[in-house]
Amino acid sequence: LDDLLGEGVSGRRVLVRADLNVPFDKNNPGVISDDGRARAVLPTLVALRDAGARVIVVSHLGRPKGAPDPKYTLAPVAARLGELLGAPVAFAADTVGDDAAAKVEALQDGQVLLLENLRFNAGETSKDDAERAAFAAQLASFADYYVDDAFGAVHRKHASVYDVPAVLPHYAGGLVLREVEVLKKVTESPEQPYVVVLGGSKVSDKLAVIKALLPKVDKLLVGGGMCFTFLKAQGHEVGKSLLEEDMVATCRDLLSEAQGRIVLPVDVVAATEFSADAGHVTVDASEIPADRLGLDIGPKSVALFAQAVGSAKTVFWNGPMGVFELAPFAAGTRGVAEAITKIDGFSVVGGGDSAAAVRTLGLDESAFGHISTGGGASLEYLEGKTLPGIEALEK
Ligand code: 3PG
User: In a mutational test of the pocket of ligand 1, which residue from 74, 118, 156 has the highest number of ligand atoms less than 8 Å from its CB?
Assistant: First the structure.
């Protein structure tokens, strides 16, 4: 971005790919529950605006099926961006249609426009190279330059991430650069001991990263919904807890390969149903009643995990330890997160739900070394995969 600003962008149109895929409050449609991703891209937007560029922002939101779907409109995000920028952000009701074209045309120097959700267009996520390229050409026709500051989406081979930079002069935004720098350090030369904390609901989503990390880590602490498949693999009954039957054998293999380096919860908070009002008890992880489901790790597990992260020089954390959105099941995530803030070393929070947890639980963001905006993207980086968005920028 500094290179682009150095060239002078006054009066030029700059297409900024941002990741404005923010979570919304489940009880209040249209109300953003965590605007961290919008804040993260502000420095780039402000720098371009202050340099007199005409800024066209594009993003996805959720996973609509390639056609307009009001549930996934970016309109509330345009309003929030305007508040954060202290100036109105224009909003186009389509991405490359007549409204977008008219609003791009009307854009003045230093103004910001957000186009409607990229994924309302089948070309954005198409597996067909020609279809993606055709959509990318429409987007590119709006601008003179392209800036990618959507770290959370660099692992997607999508038109706005991979194909637009093939046809426009392209630059990395400050957020993308900072994220890559931190994750590179953690991947290539983590200071030892290196402890990884993984949570979230599914083992299958994290399998590749577990396999890639196992040889590198001193300890891999597993909480969240995915711990029950591991507990089952250890021979415990898990009641009505989340379970991926088809992953039990894989978990058994991982546990044996890890030779004690995978650490599982020793107690869990088990409830009668998935609800904040459900009756709940703390039980040993080996004694989950048949009619209950585990919704958080228990206090003994928090102490065990805190001790493990306490001796680490590098900690990477991805995924909540329990259903932190429901108050009775937030203590596990809070306890482990607080332990991470106290380490005498470098900590990275790997995006998505864990970053949202840090903010919604009111934890001190500055106490973490780095809070990534990328969930899947940071995991794929740690796996050592080539990320299409980074590859396209490097070309
Ligand atoms: C994310 O939330 O990880 C990014 O915004 C990417 O979203 P996606 O998984 O729907 O591509």
Answer: 156
What CATH number does the domain containing 214 carry? 3.40.50.1260
Does residue 158 sit in the same domain as residue 212?
no
Give the single-character DSSP code of 234.
T
19 close to ligand 1 (CB < 6 Angstrom): yes
pLDDT for 348-393, tens place per residue?
999 778 888 998 889 999 999 999 999 999 999 999 999 999 999 9
Quick count: other Cβ atoms within 10 Å of Cβ 338? 15
Quote the pTM value: 0.91
- 192 and 76 both lie in a single domain: no
Q: Which atom of ligand 1 is nearest to the CA of 156?
A: 11
Residue 201 and residue 219 in one domain? yes
Ligand 1 atom with the smallest distance to the CA of 152 is 4
What is the sign, positive or negative, of the torsion defined by CA atoms of 72, 126, 176, 143? negative
Looking at the structure, do residues 141 and 195 belong to the same domain, yes or no? no
Number of domains in the chain: 2
- Ligand 1 mean position to 63 CA, how many Å? 8
Ligand 1 centroid distance, CA of 282 (Å) = 34
Burial of residue 31 (CB within 10 Å: 0-12, 13-18, 19+) is: exposed
Question: Is 71 inside any structural domain?
Answer: yes
Q: If you search the block for the tokens 């992953």, which residue do you land on?
A: 247
Specify whether 342 is located in the same domain as 197: yes
Domain encompassing residue 281? 182-382
The tokens 């898990």 sit on which residue? 238
Digit-coded pLDDT (tens) for 91-149: 999 999 999 999 999 999 999 999 999 999 999 999 999 999 999 999 999 999 999 99
The reply to whether 49 belongs to the active site is no
Would you say the CB of residue 152 lies under 6 angstroms from ligand 1? yes
- Report H helices in the chain: 2-7, 36-50, 75-85, 98-106, 122-125, 129-140, 174-188, 203-213, 227-233, 248-258, 299-310, 331-341, 352-360, 376-383, 388-394
